[in-house]
Amino acid sequence: MKPLVRCSSLDQLFECPGSRTLIPLVPESKGGPASWEGSQGHWQIAARLVLEQNATEPAGGLLPPDVPTGYAMPKYSTWMIDWALRQVAELIPADWYLEVEVPLAYEFLLFILSGHLDLLAVSPDGKHIKGADWKLGYDAVDAADVNSQILGYLGLIKRAYPDAEDAEFFICQPRNDPDEGFPRVSSVKLTGAELDSCVSYLEGRVNASLANPFELNTGRKQCRWCPVSWRCPAILALVEEMKTILTPEIIAKMKTAGDAEVGDFVITSKVLAKAFDDAEAIAKERITKNGRIVAGCGINITQKHENGKYAVKEPIPMFNAVRSILPAEEIAGCINYSTTRLKDSIAKALSIPKTGQAATTAKSVFDAKLLPYLEQGKRTQLIFT
Q1: pTM of the full predicted structure?
Q2: Neighbours of 193 (CB within 10 A)
Q3: 96: left (phi over 0), alpha (psi -120 to 50) or beta
């Protein structure tokens, strides 16, 4: 039987082929509030597109979201639904055919590739395709033009629509903060020969990866989302490198460490960060169940509970309550503004696009009315290429 490869796993497969061997061996992670919110959010976006923009449902209709009985998406997150619908209105021409929750698959010579598109749009003549993927979590994923999941989607689109002349795909991440260097919408567009060749390129890379099922490679991209995490032999090998015996050569090198050593250490810290966080989460889960765990070195690990930060559950009642207590000049000093959320709200309240060539956009209103009161700071971000 040919192996089934999912588009969502392509980044991991390409960078670390052996991960495909290990992932089935580790316990599947349990869903929690973050995954429930994502599942519910995707379902609500699809349902509203069907209801309000005449999008077509998958065969058999929309499946219910994978959430516990009685679960409701937090009110402070529901703004993302309206935001997503505005993206569709701005990015997709009104006369195009829309589909939601679209399953695609294609059987190549050595494997089967499958993908699940949140949104697929086709021009009336069938020559132009657009797709979108909603990422509703807090952690930013790679932009569309360097994201192998999107490469897989484009390959499947070309196989499903062989006469397509171009295809464009968007990754939409409403919780990203552009001020922090993470765009909320990124895209990649392939035209003509580029779209044709992406299929053979995709097939070649998958074949090469499947041919090396025992090769493990650590790296920021592949380790960031890998469920094997701290159990991975390659990760454990990195940790073992922290143990050594001093030699004259090592001592001499302490005075001459250059850019290469600094860079390698920074990359290693990024790779290990998620593994450490995952291991700590599992430790807390086991301690909650058993009271403690004993490390291999003999140290007992227990835990204590402390109060965390507050989150506003009901923004409007909260605002009204504050306003009933404090004068406006005091409220002003208590509020932190999100520029991206302000632009979203301006677009919604005034029924105008966020950006673009229109005479009035949320950005132009923001720049004219609010920007004079703001001062933007500077930050330094490391870029890995």
Answers
A1: 0.76
A2: 8
A3: beta
